[in-house]
Amino acid sequence: MIEQRHSVQEALSFASSKQQANIHLSIIMTSISTKKDKGAAPEANVCAHCLAPEGSHGVVLKACTRYKATHYCGRACQSAHWRAGHKQFCVTPEERAPQPVSTSSTRI
Fold first, then answer.
1. Contact 73, 61 (CB under 8 A)
2. Where are the alpha helices (DSSP H) in 1-108?
């Protein structure tokens, strides 16, 4: 769920237009509904910058080395996306994991 929340925040902050934001959000929502309907269905990957879907016209996507949940079709898109703000969200999966809640109670 945290990963999905970051994806929505990224979609809105990186979109250069309202139409591009809507495309990002529709891809994310389709992915979420597919996972709910079919269990562990694989997520459709698109380039986080230019939105090129994997497999179309020979596009091969590579995941962000650190973030793992963002994909790029090439170095140019990765650099542009980084400058556009991905660096604000780029954290390892371990850093995205919820922190355990302390069970000790403090007495006054």
1. yes
2. 2-14, 18-38, 75-81, 87-89, 93-96
Nearest to 24 by CA among 45, 41, 1, 40: 45
pLDDT digits (tens, 9 = 90+) for 12-38: 555 555 556 656 556 665 555 444 444
Q: Locate the domains of the chain by residue range.
A: 2-95
Q: What is the DSSP string of 20-51?
A: HHHHHHHHHHHHHHHHHHHSSPPPPPBBTTT-
- In this structure, what are the phi and psi dihedrals at residue 16, rounded to the nearest 5 degrees? -85, -10
pLDDT tens across 47-56, in order? Answer: 999 999 998 8
| Contact between 4 and 32 (Cβ < 8 Å) | yes
Q: What is the pTM of this model?
A: 0.53
